[in-house]
Write a structure and sequence with these properties.
3 helices, 143 residues
């Protein structure tokens, strides 16, 4: 018998195999479970903008990837219906960003997920962004 944790891990593995964008950005899945995911990425030279800080779009992409793994953790193909981010602090070259996605609610085919992005660098750990994603199941599974 397959339990919820095994389903979440299997779905994440199947999604990861085809997620060229997250892989190209050097992301790694740290943890996944039913309705939750933790994804990490290091800010590289090619991720820094003209202000010498991490590009906000890449912080959004990290949060969106954690959101995707969390909302697909039930092995039901799910996409983003809407998402919003609030930037709290800048990121810098070499920072290790960690996005932690947690399910707030899930009813029918829709869900809401909160994602907190922290940066660990030379000055310690700081919350750099908060993200809210709204998901919608589109049918099918990864199996």
């Amino acid at each position: 018998m397959t339990g919820p944790q095994e389903v979440a891990e299997s779905a994440a593995e199947a999604m990861w195999a085809g997620d060229q964008a997250s892989q190209a950005l050097g992301m790694e899945i740290v943890e996944v479970g039913p309705g939750r995911a933790v994804v990490r990425m290091t800010v590289r030279e090619d991720m820094v903008n003209g202000h010498a800080i991490g590009h906000g779009g890449l912080t959004f992409t990290l949060a969106d990837s954690a959101f995707a793994f969390a909302c697909n953790s039930y092995d039901r193909r799910t996409v983003a219906a809407a998402a919003e981010i609030r930037f709290r602090a800048p990121t810098h070259l070499g920072d290790v960003l960690t996005a932690t996605a947690t399910e707030r609610s899930r009813e029918g085919r829709s869900g809401v997920y909160d994602v907190e992005v922290t940066a660990s660098g030379s000055s310690g750990a700081t919350v750099v962004a908060t993200f809210v994603g709204h998901s919608r199941e589109v049918g099918g599974s990864f199996a």
